[in-house]
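Sequence in, structure out. Go.
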Amino acid sequence: MKLLSYKTYIHPGQGTPGEGYTPTHAIKDWSARTTTTIELYEKRQISLCRFAEILGISLEEAKQFLNAENIPLDLGVDTDEELQQDIENA
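Output:
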């Protein structure tokens, strides 16, 4: 039976036993990536779909995550004028 390192478990195919990459490191990495991704989403630099993709979660989980953090969802245009602008810019 082959022993699995933390890094190999968290990132399959990477790392070797004893590398020192612990679950704590993984949590810190995910936390930093999440913070950056939230900032990009709030600045409307990425879409909800891209937000979910970066974090490796489903679209529904992304919506729940943002709602839990009291971050308004940007689900598209709010007015007919915005829709017309999007069509013209496409």
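Check: DSSP finds five helices and no strands in the chain. Helices lie at 6-10, 23-42, 48-55, 59-68, 80-89.
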